[in-house]
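The data are quoted verbatim here:
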Amino acid sequence: MMDFHCHLDLYPDARKVYAEAQKKMDFVWLVTTSPRGFAATSKILRQTESIVISPGLHPEVAAQKAPELELLLHQMADSIAIGEIGLDGSARYRQNFALQTQIFSAIVKRAQALGGRILSIHSRTAAIEVLDILELSPGFGTAVLHWFTDSAQLLQRASRIGCWFSVGPAMLNSANGRKLAAIMPMDRVVPESDGPFATTSGNPIMPWEASGVAEQLSSLWSLPTPTVAALLLRNGTTLRSMLADPAGVLSKIE
């Protein structure tokens, strides 16, 4: 079982969930929401071969966490995985969109300068701007668009520039989520939980529940569930190997 976007540190009983994930999961990508949060989490929860902890700066907290941008740019030198980052153009956060854009642009440019990073990206109602920024920095690495909910046209544009997609049970509860998942490139889709923020039946989705997307995707892709599960495992193994820095990118920088 794999989970490529999880706020494992923010569950009410994070240590217990972490310990259980260690036992049950083949891999978890623990994304953080701020540079200081990453520093604190890294002291409490140990990074292992199966749990990668990445520094991030979530667009929803851009106004509060903007002063931490320089810290994040420094942390990126020692982390192949970066996230959660991105843009949020929804009404609640639109007033900070210019600041979000400055922050995200700086992160992507830093990834390019460092020789490439794997980015877990939030793009709610801002996919055009996210893709514009990525395209301005060729060599930034690999983008994994988390819970992509924009349009089919923008999904196709993202696919053309090599983006991956992390898909979770909560995303597939919506008609638009199912519509988009149905046309995603099957070889670049990986499971996510987005727990504890994402919920089903009012309960936070646990990391080990991310694999439930195989059954949901089977009907959308017109493939047997075991076939989809095997495909997601193969995709996850590929992306996990990239997150493990097999090319030795980190040894070549600064």
